[in-house]
Specification:
The complex is a heterodimer.
Chain A (H helix, E strand, L loop, with lengths): L6 E6 L4 H16 L3 E6 L29 H4 L4 H15 L5 H10 L3 E5 H6 L11 E5 L1 H8 L3 E4 L1
Parallel strand pairs in A: 1-2, 1-5, 2-3, 3-4
Helix pairs in contact in A: 1-4
Chain B lengths: L1 E5 L2 E5 L13 H10 L7 H17 L5 H7 L4 H7 L4 H8 L10
Antiparallel strand pairs in B: 1-2
Classes of the chains: A alpha/beta, B mainly alpha.
């Protein structure tokens, strides 16, 4: 092992369960390896740090071919909640925390959590809407400043 | 397999310097491994984590995740990263003479 990664900045842009977890796992995994990490939440990815929504993130059961579930079946009320519960149970067995706990864990690990200003304005949100671990609401330019000298991962 | 000399004894290590045979480890080696990895002195709090990691590994065959370290070792996650800035589970395993944890969480 000669080349090493010293810093990563991860963008989470989607609000489904399967859209949010990969970025969180990458961020947490980076910190576990001693790699500096920032997480930038944008668009529906903001749900992961929204105090009213972060406990209610669900698997997309419509328009998600990976589930191999007929579109009409995925649209039945309650199916999304059911699939989400099943997945959450399986994840708990693997010691993968629920999103609110996971985000807090990542903040405690020293990673910086940031909300995207354009999305915050678009959805008419403010700092009050986010969990206290969010360090700041920043512009794209400020994000690039934070990300300087490291790798950027878009999810 | 590589071998290195730690605290006067020759031990087998993997490519990243983790001990291959936990029974070859002793506490004097821990201090040496810690210094080589940027931790000048091991405090009681470091030892609490290292002992917990090592005992869990010896009892169950796998090392705890950072999440369960935070919940059950008695040292919260924030402090874990202050004690082991280069990664709590990885570094505590290395210092405690057990193989590198392979969990993703």
């Amino acid at each position: 092992m000669s080349a090493t990664i010293e810093k990563v900045s991860i963008i989470i842009s989607k609000g489904s369960l399967e859209g949010i977890y990969p970025g969180l796992i990458m961020a947490n995994g980076a910190r576990m390896e001693g790699i500096e990490a920032n997480v930038f939440f944008t668009f529906f990815g903001l749900d992961a740090i929204n105090r009213a929504k972060h406990e209610h993130v669900r698997v997309a059961t419509v328009g998600n071919p990976g589930l191999h579930l007929a579109t009409w079946a995925g649209a039945i009320p309650g199916v999304s909640a059911l699939v989400t519960r099943q997945l959450a149970r399986e994840m708990e067995k693997l010691d993968i925390p629920p999103i609110p706990e996971f985000v807090e864990m990542i903040a405690d690990s020293g990673a910086g959590l940031y909300a995207c200003k354009a999305s915050v304005d678009l959805f008419k949100l403010s700092g009050e809407d986010f969990i206290p671990q969010v360090r700041d609401i920043i512009t794209v330019g400020e994000f690039y400043g934070q990300a300087a000298g490291g790798e950027i991962i878009f999810t | 397999m590589n071998t290195v000399t730690l605290a006067g004894a020759t031990v087998e290590v993997d490519a990243e310097g983790f001990l291959v045979q936990p029974e070859q480890w002793n506490e004097r080696m821990a201090e040496e491994i810690a210094r080589a990895n940027g931790i000048e002195a091991l405090t009681d709090r470091h030892w609490q984590v290292i002992s917990f990691m090592r005992n869990t590994y010896l009892q169950t065959g796998s090392a705890p995740s950072v999440r369960s370290l935070g919940k059950t070792s008695g040292v919260p996650i924030k402090e874990l990263y202050e004690l082991f800035p280069k990664g709590p589970s990885k570094l505590a395993a290395k210092i405690g003479g057990i193989p590198k944890p392979r969990g993703c969480i």
